Amino acid sequence: MKISGFNKTTLLDYPGKVAATIFLAGCNFRCPFCHNSSLVLHPAMQPEFSQEEILKFLTKRRGILDGVCISGGEPALAPELSDFLCKIKDIGYEIKLDTNGSRPDVIKSLVKNKLVDKIAMDIKACPDNYRALTGLKHPDMESIRESVDFLLEGNVDYEFRTTVVKELHTEKDFREIGGWIKGAKAYYLQAYRDSEEVLQPGFSSYTREELESFRTLLLQTIPLVEIRGID
User: Fold this and answer.
1) Alpha carbons 90 and 136: distance in angstroms, whole number
2) 138-176 pLDDT, tens per residue?
3) 146 is in which domain, residue-wise?
4) What SS3 class is residue 42?
5) What distance in Å separates the CA atoms of residue 165 and residue 205, rounded to the nearest whole number?
6) Which site in 2, 69, 91, 178 is 20 to 30 Å from 211, CA atoms measured?
């Protein structure tokens, strides 16, 4: 397991908590709009933080921070993840996991062992558009659906979210997503923002008005739908 990024304080990554965010290198998707491309494409070339220095920092900040967000990359790929989360739990933190949902076995195990308190799962697109949004010829939709179904059962606090890219998403995506995750606890539409770190730069965001139209559509089947990342 390679820790290649560490944000010592955030009010955004773990909503409702003052948290630190840990970024693990490596991913099994190649989403063209990914803003952490260096963690995905060149994990071996990234800086590395030791578990010991992360845990030492978290111990010192106990009482100031109250949460830890584990992101990536795709953290569920890391074989040492459970042991690492155990150590964070022993310090006394609540943990949120960001995941693409491709490893339902890992998600279920972490929940069963009470190693995560919240899961944020990316819904990349409607199922038949996953190929374009993940950069994979054959995305494992069976595993993705298994993770969605598990979270919908309410075994752990969760949210679903989609980074909305004008060139990649259409109204059809959100009509189908609304049926797919019908009744979900919370779903967030995240406005795309271009940056130098994007795997494939040059995409753009829908306007707030356009995102609001998707939100209105989704509210027919999902009780809480909000927009993030746009003024």
Assistant:
1) 38
2) 999 999 999 999 999 999 999 999 999 999 999 999 999
3) 3-165
4) coil
5) 5
6) 69
